[in-house]
Amino acid sequence: MPRPSPRPWSSLPDRPALGDLPHSWYDPRMGDPLFTFRFAPLVIRHLVLDEAAGRALLEENGLPPDGITGAVTTSLSHVRDFLNRATEIAEDPDLGLHVGSAAPPGMLGLTEMVVRTAPRVADAMVVAARFYALINPVGRLTYEPATRRLDYHVVGGEHGHVMNELSFSYLYHSLQRVVAEPVTLEEAWFSHRRPAAPLEKHFGCPVRMGTPTTGFALTAAAAGASMLRADPAVHAFLVEQAERETAAEPVAVMLERVIEAQVGLPQASLDTVADAVGWPRRTLQRRLEEEGETFHSVVDNVRRRHALARLAAGEPKNAVARAIGLASAGSLRRAMARWASEP
User: Fold this and answer.
1) How many whole angstroms separate alpha carbon 12 and alpha carbon 44?
2) For the structural domain made of 249-341, what CATH number should be given?
3) Cβ neighbour number for residue 257 with a 10 Å cutoff
4) What is the pLDDT of residues 302-325, one digit of tens each?
5) CB contact at 8 A, 191 and 154
């Protein structure tokens, strides 16, 4: 069947109301963490948009236009808005399921390589959870071998129904490609709310909606299934590489991640961050001093990264200032001048 011609931006339907797709799905007290989004090119391809229309769609929703060719790091709310708008354009409430199932392997980098070379599916889930932070620090993945449950715990707010379904559809179909027998699920659950029937058909199991986490439970047969690309030597090497990347993280970088994903810039004080990591404030200060850092420098680095990402996406300076915990656009201008003068 011939592929439809790409649609220009002028042919896209007007933006309807989002209905049951909530605009403010994250808790504003947690800030709006940065998120690395890898699926924008696939979404644009699914919509059959030409390059100009694809770039316009990205920019309209606050994503950098170069996201049309690869991964972008931007505010999580922009990713949510982009996916919701794509769902509206496609008139396809199952867009996340469709894009996730059609995505090629290798989208998730080193962590996915570790997963694909594991001995069994259960082992693959263990390392997926262990090294999830290499994919994105926003959220936490856990696997419980006794119950065969893989759970995604949201940190900093709900990701939205399209991202939830896209992510787990990709994981589910990626497993199907590297196991000889079909991977079967006992059940699946999603933290958003919508009719379960399309998801039950897609995943082939009962599905619960509106749960505290998003995840699935493998059948015993699926958990014990051998991986087609299992390679003990390669797997051990890749695990070592992943351990090196996670273990080498300086305290300052870890605290930046906590500020972005848990605390939020507007609430980032020494006390709130110390509470989030479970350290006394003096311990936190001492660990930073050992690295030649201060708490102020950590917060300032997060502010700079967020400011540059938001300004590049075309956000107004007053809005950027508020988002990063500064009083006004004037404060932002002074901070930008200082950052420009620093090495």
Assistant:
1) 13
2) 1.10.10.60
3) 18
4) 899 888 888 887 888 998 898 888
5) yes
**d(Cα 154, Cα 210) in Å, to the nearest integer?**
13
Is the CB of residue 191 less than 8 Å from the CB of residue 212?
Answer: yes
What backbone torsions phi and psi does residue 202 show, to the nearest 5 degrees? -70, -45
Q: Are the C-beta atoms of residues 87 and 93 closer than 8 Å to each other?
A: yes
- Under a CB-based contact definition with an 8 Å cutoff, are residues 219 and 186 in contact? yes
Helix (H, G, I), strand (E, B) or coil at 144: strand
**What whole-number distance in Å separates Cα of residue 44 and Cα of residue 70?**
11
User: Up-side HSE of residue 23: CA atoms within 13 Å toward CB?
Assistant: 4
Neighbours of 334 (CB within 10 A): 12
Distance CA 230, CA 149 (A): 22
Pairing of strands 185-190, 207-209: parallel
Burial of 337 per CB tally in 10 Å (0-12, 13-18, 19+): exposed
DSSP conformation class of 94? T
pLDDT tens-digit map of 247-283: 766 888 888 877 876 677 888 899 988 887 778 888 8
